[in-house]
Amino acid sequence: MTMAVESPAPGRRVRASERALRIALKVIQDSGLPVDKVCISGGQIEIHCGDVDVSKPKKKDGGLKQW
After folding, report:
1. Of 17, 26, 37, 40, which cross-links 48 as Cys (Cβ 3.0–4.6 Å)?
2. Domain boundaries, the chain
3. Cα separation of 2 and 21, whole Å?
4. Cα dist from 47 to 22, 24, 26, 43, 67, whole Å
5. Tens of pLDDT along the chain (67 residues)?
6. Residue 32, by phi and psi: left (phi above 0), alpha (psi -120 to 50) or beta?
């Protein structure tokens, strides 16, 4: 999702909110995504997530042999 961001008035300092960063990282953590890198530049926050390993679920057959 891309949102339009208004540019601040000249001479006004903009910085990333610690609260916004904590909320974003909490949501990513709750979804189980690994975070590779976090870049903060002024009011912009970039969060780079790693790949999710998809492994086959092990077949649980109770230890019985197929016959």
Report:
1. 37
2. 18-49
3. 17
4. 12, 9, 12, 13, 51
5. 455 666 666 777 777 788 888 998 999 989 888 888 998 887 888 999 887 666 666 666 666 666 6
6. left
